[in-house]
Amino acid sequence: MTMTSKKWLLLIVSLPTNSATTRxxxxxxxxxxxxxxxxxxxxxxxxxxxxxxxxxxxxxxTMREGGNAWLLDVQSSNAExxxxxxxxxxxxxxxxELTGLLAETxxxxxxxxxxxxxxxxxxxxxxxxxxxxxxxxxxxxxxxAEQAWKEFAALADAVLTAxxxxxxxxxxxxxxxxxxxxxxxxxxxxxxxDRVASAWLIRRHIDHDAHFVWLDSPADCPPDALGFDFDxxxxxxxxxxxxxxxxxxxxxxxxxxxxxxxGALVHVLDxxxxxxxxxxxxxxxxxxLRQRARDDNELLEQAGSILDALxxxxxxxxxxxxxxxxxxx
Length: 329
Hints:
Layout: E1 7-14, H1 20-32, E2 36-39, E3 42-46, H2 49-64, E4 68-75, H3 79-87, H4 92-109, H5 114-133, H6 140-160, E5 184-188, H7 193-206, E6 211-215, E7 226-227, H8 243-250, H9 257-271, H10 279-292, H11 296-316
Parallel strand pairs: 5-6, 5-7
Antiparallel strand pairs: 1-3, 1-4, 2-3
């Protein structure tokens, strides 16, 4: 079978010698694009408009820093040369290693805690997505990795959703905050991200005299309590919004910049998609507090101080495009 000749992009760079930091930054950018290395300083990529723009930017950066760069359009002259070019982009070994890691991690994820399962899911999703982004010629190895990823994600999701509420399809009613003062609020015990943040939000911004009860089971919810973050609760997941975001929308708090950015953080940690730079740090601190706290009341008090600080930070600093709550998968 004759292999069709393909157009390629060839970036030839002579990196600046006066700044090791600049050299490393440019080299890391080239690596992140998955460039094929023809020889020292000669980087190959399949011809593509987006890749052309990125290589052009890297070339411009190189020249601004005192180096030299040439971006050329090239084409393989025959099938043998085309085969050699494509071989530079064979990700089979990387996919095989990732497939093995997914299978090995999947053996124990079913017995892990929800927070550990969430951490593993985010970590391995980043690795899988990074590899897919530079897989310009998918093959059987990439298909096997895709199946392995789906199987691992299903195992992790089973842990994460064991007692998590199922999102409902409904309109979020706008409520009068004056009708929700001095109330009893209830959610599942062993607070984690969405529940602890929602309880903080209730006490700080909705019902300053709120009283809480922590439930062993949603079935134990008192009839006079306002439930949150469980199936059938007054406030729970709606559409793509987690409980914290639903509370924001319900009480017209979603226009508060600091609260909206906190909502994006909670969304990332509870559902797992998107990116907020501060999320990993908050999750680590909450995990530590959870190990030390004697009960959920103490956990809420201690986590509340961190959420207070994050709210002040988010309210007073400009939001980056991603930390503003872009929910990119």
